[in-house]
Design brief:
Elements lengths: L4 E3 L4 H10 L5 H5 L7 E3 L4 E6 L2 E7 L1 E2 L6 E2 L1 E3 L7 H9 L1 E6 L1 E7 L6 E7 L6 E11 L5 E11 L10 E3 L1 E2 L4 H6 L1 H9 L6 E4 L6
Parallel strand pairs: 4-12, 7-12
Antiparallel strand pairs: 1-2, 1-9, 3-4, 3-8, 5-6, 8-11, 9-10, 10-15, 11-12, 11-14, 12-13
Amino acid sequence: MCGRYLIDEEVYADMWTIVSEAGAVTSALRSQQDSLIKGEVFPTNIAPVITFGGTKTAKWGFPQSKSAGVIINARAETAMQKRIFSKSLLESRCVIPSSGFYEWSRTIGGKEKNKFLLRQPGERLLFMAGIIGTFRDINNVDYSAFVILTTNANESVLPIHDRMPVILAHDERNNWIKDETFVEHALNRPGPELMLINQSKAKA
Protein backbone atom coordinates (compact mmCIF):
# COMPACT_ATOMS: atom_id res chain seq x y z
CA MET A 1 0.00 0.00 0.00
CA CYS A 2 1.04 3.59 -0.48
CA GLY A 3 -0.35 5.75 2.30
CA ARG A 4 1.72 8.90 1.82
CA TYR A 5 4.04 10.30 -0.77
CA LEU A 6 6.40 13.23 -1.13
CA ILE A 7 6.55 16.34 -3.27
CA ASP A 8 9.94 17.61 -2.22
CA GLU A 9 10.53 21.37 -2.20
CA GLU A 10 13.87 20.70 -3.89
CA VAL A 11 12.29 19.08 -6.95
CA TYR A 12 9.03 21.01 -7.04
CA ALA A 13 10.12 23.21 -9.95
CA ASP A 14 11.21 20.15 -11.95
CA MET A 15 7.93 18.42 -11.23
CA TRP A 16 5.88 21.44 -12.28
CA THR A 17 7.84 21.70 -15.54
CA ILE A 18 7.08 18.06 -16.36
CA VAL A 19 3.44 18.44 -15.39
CA SER A 20 3.19 21.52 -17.60
CA GLU A 21 4.82 19.75 -20.55
CA ALA A 22 2.32 16.91 -20.28
CA GLY A 23 -0.50 19.08 -21.55
CA ALA A 24 -1.96 22.54 -21.70
CA VAL A 25 -2.01 24.08 -18.25
CA THR A 26 -5.14 26.13 -17.72
CA SER A 27 -4.97 29.59 -16.21
CA ALA A 28 -6.95 28.27 -13.24
CA LEU A 29 -4.39 25.55 -12.60
CA ARG A 30 -1.50 27.96 -13.12
CA SER A 31 -3.02 30.28 -10.52
CA GLN A 32 -2.94 27.40 -8.02
CA GLN A 33 0.76 26.65 -8.55
CA ASP A 34 2.04 28.50 -5.51
CA SER A 35 -0.61 27.00 -3.24
CA LEU A 36 -0.23 23.38 -4.36
CA ILE A 37 1.00 21.12 -1.62
CA LYS A 38 4.71 20.63 -1.05
CA GLY A 39 6.10 18.09 1.38
CA GLU A 40 4.19 15.00 2.48
CA VAL A 41 0.97 14.34 0.60
CA PHE A 42 -1.75 12.72 2.73
CA PRO A 43 -4.98 11.01 1.66
CA THR A 44 -7.69 13.60 0.77
CA ASN A 45 -5.04 16.24 -0.08
CA ILE A 46 -5.31 18.00 -3.44
CA ALA A 47 -2.34 17.27 -5.72
CA PRO A 48 -1.35 17.63 -9.39
CA VAL A 49 -1.89 14.70 -11.76
CA ILE A 50 -1.25 14.14 -15.47
CA THR A 51 -4.28 12.96 -17.46
CA PHE A 52 -5.34 12.36 -21.06
CA GLY A 53 -6.75 15.89 -21.21
CA GLY A 54 -3.64 17.55 -19.82
CA THR A 55 -2.82 18.44 -16.25
CA LYS A 56 -5.17 19.08 -13.37
CA THR A 57 -5.50 18.89 -9.63
CA ALA A 58 -7.44 16.14 -7.90
CA LYS A 59 -8.21 14.80 -4.45
CA TRP A 60 -6.30 11.69 -3.35
CA GLY A 61 -8.89 9.01 -2.65
CA PHE A 62 -12.12 7.72 -4.18
CA PRO A 63 -15.08 8.11 -1.80
CA GLN A 64 -16.42 5.01 -0.11
CA SER A 65 -20.11 4.39 -0.65
CA LYS A 66 -20.88 3.22 2.89
CA SER A 67 -18.51 5.27 5.04
CA ALA A 68 -16.88 8.67 5.31
CA GLY A 69 -13.42 7.36 4.45
CA VAL A 70 -11.65 7.23 1.10
CA ILE A 71 -9.99 4.48 -0.94
CA ILE A 72 -6.43 5.54 -1.75
CA ASN A 73 -5.01 2.45 -3.48
CA ALA A 74 -6.23 -0.14 -5.99
CA ARG A 75 -4.59 -3.54 -6.36
CA ALA A 76 -3.27 -4.00 -9.91
CA GLU A 77 -4.25 -7.67 -9.85
CA THR A 78 -7.93 -7.08 -9.16
CA ALA A 79 -8.72 -3.48 -10.19
CA MET A 80 -10.45 -4.56 -13.39
CA GLN A 81 -12.80 -6.80 -11.40
CA LYS A 82 -13.82 -4.02 -9.00
CA ARG A 83 -16.75 -1.92 -10.13
CA ILE A 84 -15.40 1.21 -8.47
CA PHE A 85 -12.11 0.98 -10.41
CA SER A 86 -12.81 -0.79 -13.71
CA LYS A 87 -14.29 2.11 -15.70
CA SER A 88 -11.47 4.47 -14.68
CA LEU A 89 -8.84 1.84 -15.47
CA LEU A 90 -10.28 1.46 -18.96
CA GLU A 91 -10.98 5.12 -19.70
CA SER A 92 -9.39 7.53 -17.19
CA ARG A 93 -5.84 6.67 -16.27
CA CYS A 94 -3.50 9.25 -14.77
CA VAL A 95 0.09 9.68 -13.66
CA ILE A 96 0.97 10.96 -10.20
CA PRO A 97 4.32 12.80 -10.08
CA SER A 98 6.27 12.63 -6.82
CA SER A 99 9.70 12.68 -5.27
CA GLY A 100 9.08 9.25 -3.71
CA PHE A 101 6.66 7.49 -1.37
CA TYR A 102 6.64 6.41 2.26
CA GLU A 103 6.27 3.07 4.01
CA TRP A 104 6.60 2.03 7.63
CA SER A 105 8.24 -1.03 9.15
CA ARG A 106 7.78 -2.15 12.74
CA THR A 107 10.86 -2.54 14.89
CA ILE A 108 11.56 -5.73 16.83
CA GLY A 109 8.82 -6.12 19.43
CA GLY A 110 6.40 -4.07 17.34
CA LYS A 111 6.30 -1.05 19.67
CA GLU A 112 7.69 1.49 17.23
CA LYS A 113 7.63 2.06 13.48
CA ASN A 114 10.53 3.05 11.29
CA LYS A 115 9.61 5.39 8.48
CA PHE A 116 11.23 4.98 5.06
CA LEU A 117 11.23 7.18 2.00
CA LEU A 118 11.51 5.11 -1.18
CA ARG A 119 13.02 6.69 -4.27
CA GLN A 120 14.50 5.61 -7.58
CA PRO A 121 18.30 5.72 -7.57
CA GLY A 122 19.60 8.52 -9.74
CA GLU A 123 16.14 9.99 -10.40
CA ARG A 124 14.77 13.20 -8.95
CA LEU A 125 11.18 12.27 -9.74
CA LEU A 126 9.14 9.09 -9.35
CA PHE A 127 5.96 8.61 -11.41
CA MET A 128 3.17 6.42 -10.04
CA ALA A 129 0.40 4.89 -12.15
CA GLY A 130 -3.09 5.90 -11.12
CA ILE A 131 -6.70 6.15 -12.17
CA ILE A 132 -8.97 9.16 -11.86
CA GLY A 133 -12.72 9.65 -11.66
CA THR A 134 -15.36 12.32 -11.16
CA PHE A 135 -17.54 12.27 -8.05
CA ARG A 136 -20.15 14.48 -6.39
CA ASP A 137 -19.75 15.83 -2.86
CA ILE A 138 -22.41 16.44 -0.21
CA ASN A 139 -23.01 19.92 -1.63
CA ASN A 140 -23.79 18.42 -5.06
CA VAL A 141 -20.54 19.75 -6.54
CA ASP A 142 -18.50 17.56 -8.88
CA TYR A 143 -14.83 16.97 -8.11
CA SER A 144 -11.97 14.83 -9.44
CA ALA A 145 -10.28 12.16 -7.32
CA PHE A 146 -7.49 9.65 -7.96
CA VAL A 147 -6.12 6.44 -6.52
CA ILE A 148 -2.66 4.90 -6.85
CA LEU A 149 -2.33 1.40 -8.29
CA THR A 150 -0.18 -1.02 -6.29
CA THR A 151 1.50 -4.31 -7.08
CA ASN A 152 3.54 -6.96 -5.29
CA ALA A 153 6.73 -5.57 -3.78
CA ASN A 154 10.00 -6.50 -5.42
CA GLU A 155 13.14 -7.53 -3.55
CA SER A 156 14.21 -3.96 -2.84
CA VAL A 157 10.92 -3.16 -1.05
CA LEU A 158 10.07 -6.51 0.57
CA PRO A 159 12.21 -5.91 3.68
CA ILE A 160 9.67 -3.32 4.83
CA HIS A 161 6.42 -3.99 2.94
CA ASP A 162 4.74 -6.50 0.63
CA ARG A 163 3.20 -3.90 -1.71
CA MET A 164 4.51 -0.99 -3.78
CA PRO A 165 3.04 1.47 -6.29
CA VAL A 166 3.05 0.64 -9.99
CA ILE A 167 5.95 2.83 -11.13
CA LEU A 168 6.42 4.30 -14.59
CA ALA A 169 9.59 5.45 -16.32
CA HIS A 170 9.72 9.05 -17.48
CA ASP A 171 9.13 8.08 -21.11
CA GLU A 172 6.19 5.79 -20.25
CA ARG A 173 3.80 8.46 -19.02
CA ASN A 174 1.90 8.86 -22.30
CA ASN A 175 1.87 5.11 -22.84
CA TRP A 176 0.14 4.59 -19.50
CA ILE A 177 -2.49 7.22 -20.24
CA LYS A 178 -3.18 6.32 -23.89
CA ASP A 179 -2.06 2.76 -24.69
CA GLU A 180 -4.24 -0.09 -23.38
CA THR A 181 -1.70 -2.72 -24.46
CA PHE A 182 1.00 -1.02 -22.40
CA VAL A 183 -1.34 -0.82 -19.40
CA GLU A 184 -1.59 -4.60 -19.18
CA HIS A 185 2.20 -4.87 -19.42
CA ALA A 186 2.77 -2.24 -16.72
CA LEU A 187 0.36 -3.88 -14.29
CA ASN A 188 2.00 -7.29 -14.58
CA ARG A 189 5.72 -6.51 -14.54
CA PRO A 190 7.94 -6.23 -11.46
CA GLY A 191 8.67 -2.73 -10.22
CA PRO A 192 12.09 -1.06 -10.54
CA GLU A 193 14.71 -1.32 -7.82
CA LEU A 194 14.27 1.41 -5.21
CA MET A 195 16.47 2.82 -2.50
CA LEU A 196 15.18 3.03 1.07
CA ILE A 197 16.01 6.16 3.04
CA ASN A 198 15.43 5.59 6.74
CA GLN A 199 13.54 8.39 8.48
CA SER A 200 13.81 6.47 11.74
CA LYS A 201 11.33 6.58 14.60
CA ALA A 202 8.90 8.84 12.79
CA LYS A 203 5.29 8.23 13.69
CA ALA A 204 2.82 7.03 11.06
